[in-house]
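RESIDUES AND SHAPES:
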Amino acid sequence: MSGFIRKRVIDDNAALVQLLGLCPLLAVSNTVINALGLALATIFTLTLTNSLVSIIKPILSKEIRISLFVLIIASVVTALEMFMNAYFHELYLILGIFIPLIVTNCIIMARAESFASKNPLWLSIKDGFFTGLGFGLALVTIGAIREIIGSGSLFSQAHLLFGEFGHVLYWKIFEDYQGFLIAILPPGAFFVLAILIAIKNKAKNKH
């Protein structure tokens, strides 16, 4: 793994190190599929937004750059929202307000301002994709842990994202498991996030 990728996916992970985008991270990570849906949406938005900002940077005026960034992000998210509503309607309903709220995700604005507006197109695409990938991996990991502990299963409602093949993916890990309610409630998200941050910091200190 190159230093560029490692920095964005692991060393400066947007969720576990920078602690950005915590609202959607904690709100929709109660199952793997919910987490994966939002992760893919965030990766797409980050990559496309970074690309567009990098392309227009030669004509970008310093005075209006923030307003223009918001306009670009909002346009990308609106198109994404319409796409999900058309082709993944049930998942779109579950994720609800957190799809349009991608517009306010600090990660996207931060990468547009600090990187894409100052670097060439290819580097901006890589930055957006791997920053989003790092965030998405954290999101899906939290979703997997919470779903296993909370419901004793994995990939429940996978058909919302993968169609009929999703039924094959569903895995009931613990039979006759009554569930652990707090894991799928908001406090459970905080507990799992805290544990992941502690593990990452422990591994970093050991390294």
About this structure: The longest strand covers residues 153-154. The mean pLDDT is 89. The CA atoms of residues 54 and 118 lie 7 Å apart.
